[in-house]
Write a structure and sequence with these properties.
4-stranded mixed beta sheet, alpha+beta, single chain, elongated
Length: 424
């Protein structure tokens, strides 16, 4: 095969494969630098002081927009005049990759434009060269995410930066164009399935949010119930509202105990607990099924966050989270959903004491939360409806994770030639 690139020579061959700097590859594949696969283009920001540059029809991408593989829209847009002053315009099927920002500390945001677009100075555009498939190159970059993130330079204030010279010098395996295109087609099938699942998940989450608002305010009643709802202070619905136990945070063994991070994603994460030693264990703080954890000391965006404990694993209640335990007048899941809803969040934001970097709510203030509650049977019915909605969301999340894992496995095999595709 004629070599159109700076090929890295192989040291030996075996069964139609060649040994390269990237390991064993099919004999007709090449190993090339990224700069030989695509042209690099820098972006910029039109002057914010000129209103004629903004609010047009042309997408202008920044880090916050690189959330999907196919880029269809951006939060900010520029006019034609803006696209000609301070930034660069690229055609559709251009790869945009974040090269500067705090997001590089944990991820490698990348996407492919579907329209003529512009972008800011924190992003590099990669325009594939002849005999290079855009989707294949984008997936190849993502397949080397761990390697690339290891090359990020981090400043003292946490901003990550990928040097253009570093990106350009990265090596990638390159099959002939027809095989690139076939691989891209296969991976795009998984991308479409992931995108569809994500769309269904977003729709289901939006439906649940609306359902919570209607059910928990009594605007929509469960069929068969007509009794009046009563306003109650949370203190009347609970047997316990308390702070957690103090323990040695340096412990690395023992029984699990909650920390602020334990409920950071809105549910109990046993991978983010602390540990309490045998000597420190106190049965007073052992959690029971139905207990609710409440974030009473946190940043304002996280204040009032709650999680429900279903007793799946032994867990102690630690400091910096409040515990709410319902009495016989309330169904724990109903109270949990109320606190988790926009009703509970609005209350938390209203009464939280704000400091420079965090907010707090006292135990007495939590007890004074006023909740409008129906009779217990209707509480149970409402909780069951919302629990079912949660289960549907959980299954969609699992499906998305499974598709992502399948795609990752395919990428590892297809983009290294370990599994070959049949090209017509």
């Amino acid at each position: 095969m004629t070599n159109h690139y700076d090929n890295i020579p192989s040291s030996s061959t075996q069964h139609g494969h060649q040994k390269t700097k990237l390991g064993w590859l099919p004999g007709e594949w090449e190993v090339v630098k990224l700069e030989k696969l695509a042209h690099f283009i820098s972006g910029g920001t039109p002057s914010k002081n000129n209103p004629d540059f903004w609010d047009g029809e042309i997408p202008w991408y920044s880090a916050k927009d690189l959330k999907s593989f196919w880029l269809q829209s951006s939060i900010d847009k520029v006019s034609k005049l803006g696209s000609e002053n301070g930034t660069r315009i690229v055609e559709k099927s251009t790869i945009l990759i974040l090269v500067r920002g705090m997001m590089l500390n944990r991820d490698l945001p990348l996407g492919i434009t579907t329209l003529k677009s512009t972008f800011n100075q924190d992003i590099k555009a990669l325009v594939p060269k002849q005999n290079c498939d855009t989707v294949y190159i984008a997936h190849s970059i993502l397949n080397r995410k761990s390697k690339i993130l290891g090359l990020v330079n981090r400043s003292s204030h946490g901003t990550g930066k990928l040097e253009t010279s570093t990106l350009k010098s990265l090596l990638f395996p390159l099959p002939p164009l027809p095989e690139q295109q076939k691989i891209a087609t296969i991976l795009s099938t998984w991308d479409r399935a992931i995108a569809l699942t994500r769309q269904l998940l977003q729709e289901k989450e939006a439906q649940k949010k609306g359902l919570m608002q209607r059910l928990l305010t009594g605007k929509v009643r469960v069929k068969g119930f007509e009794e009046e709802w009563q306003n109650c202070h949370l203190d009347k619905l609970t047997s316990k509202v308390s702070n957690g136990m103090v323990y040695d945070t340096k412990n690395i063994n023992g029984e699990r105990i909650t920390r602020i991070e334990t409920i950071s994603n809105g549910e109990i994460n046993f991978g983010k607990t602390g540990f309490v030693s045998k000597e420190e264990e106190n049965p007073k703080y052992l959690m029971r099924e139905g207990d609710i954890l409440y974030s009473h000391i946190n940043s304002l965006t996280h204040i009032g966050k709650v999680a429900y404990y279903n007793g799946q694993k032994k867990l102690y209640h630690g400091m910096n989270l409040s515990l709410i335990r319902c009495n016989s007048l309330a169904i724990p899941k109903f109270v949990y959903y109320w606190l988790k809803s926009s009703l509970g969040k609005k209350w938390a934001w209203k009464f939280a004491k704000k400091a420079v970097s965090q907010a707090s709510i006292s135990t007495s203030e939590i007890k004074n939360i006023v909740i409008k509650v129906p009779i217990k049977k209707e509480q149970t019915a409402i909780a069951a409806i919302l629990t079912q909605a949660d289960e549907e969301i959980r299954l969609l999340r699992e499906k998305e994770r499974a598709l992502q894992a399948q795609k990752k496995g395919l990428m590892q095999r297809l983009l290294t030639g370990k599994v070959r595709v049949k090209v017509d």
